[in-house]
């Protein structure tokens, strides 16, 4: 039956791939499987493309899963970017409105010059402004082809900021807390659940310490004013000390039962777990 299928979250990060599978039971979610592996280094000539050998790695992992699964995939965060742009005149209708937005986005987002996948909405915090999320269409296509060749057919493809917010909802976290996730080569920050979605990425070389990181986030996040420093839920892909003014995620408290031993560092699987628990698209 459909509800017996494993729901599998696959996070493809910058340097590491992680997967987590859950199954719905009458008494709650059961953890059935987890897996992680270091990825080959990406090509410097095509950093957005799947690294050499990742297809074989994923194909070998696929053999350990049931035949019928619900697969949800999160691609590397470097493929996505978010910008604010000035909204076009409201009298401008489609398709001209879409053409205008695409041209403005291309001015601000570096890429290979190919088509972009664009999602946009009115920015509730800045009048006459759009909040735009964009990704390179060819890079997404290459990853889809890689997954398909490995026998993996994603029902859902999402990106880490949305997934982290979804996991925060599942864990019933405080709604006014900023989310910060240390991904190894940098940090992903996500606006509180009570606020509209905003996110950003801070490279490790740009923030020598946590205080510097918070200052950089305050510059990027419009919901953090001069006198406003939101409380934080902090998580990390590798074991690390918890910053003094942050709370830790109660990572696996949402599972009723863990069938295999739980991972030695559950926070590393927040994104894979959020994907696995994510609702189906309508």
Automatic annotation (TrEMBL):
Top-rank taxon, per record: Bacteria
Protein name: Pilus assembly protein HofM
Native source species: Acerihabitans sp. KWT182
């Amino acid at each position: 039956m459909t509800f017996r299928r494993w729901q599998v979250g696959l996070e493809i990060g910058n340097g590491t791939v992680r997967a987590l599978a859950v199954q719905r039971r009458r008494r709650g979610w059961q953890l059935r499987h987890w897996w992680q592996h270091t990825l080959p280094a990406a090509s410097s000539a095509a950093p957005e493309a799947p690294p050499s050998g990742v297809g074989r790695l994923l194909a070998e992992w696929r053999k350990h899963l049931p035949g019928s699964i619900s697969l949800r995939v999160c691609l590397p965060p470097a493929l996505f970017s978010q910008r604010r742009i000035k909204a076009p005149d409201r009298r401008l209708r489609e398709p001209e409105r879409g053409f205008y937005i695409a041209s403005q986005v291309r001015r601000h987002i570096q890429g290979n010059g190919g088509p972009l996948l664009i999602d946009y909405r009115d920015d509730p915090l800045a009048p006459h402004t759009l909040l735009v999320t964009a990704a390179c269409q060819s890079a997404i296509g290459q990853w889809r082809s890689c997954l398909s060749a490995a026998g993996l057919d994603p029902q859902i493809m999402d990106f880490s900021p949305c997934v982290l917010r979804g996991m925060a909802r599942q864990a019933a976290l405080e709604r006014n807390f900023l989310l910060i996730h240390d991904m190894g080569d940098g940090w992903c920050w996500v606006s509180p659940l009570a606020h509209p979605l905003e996110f950003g990425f801070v490279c490790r070389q740009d923030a020598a310490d946590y205080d510097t990181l918070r200052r950089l986030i305050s510059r990027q996040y419009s919901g953090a004013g001069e006198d406003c420093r939101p409380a934080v839920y902090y998580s990390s892909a590798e074991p690390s000390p918890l910053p003094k003014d942050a709370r830790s995620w109660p990572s696996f408290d949402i599972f009723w039962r863990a069938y295999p031993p739980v991972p030695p560092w559950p926070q590393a699987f927040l994104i894979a777990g959020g994907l696995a628990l994510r609702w189906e698209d309508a």
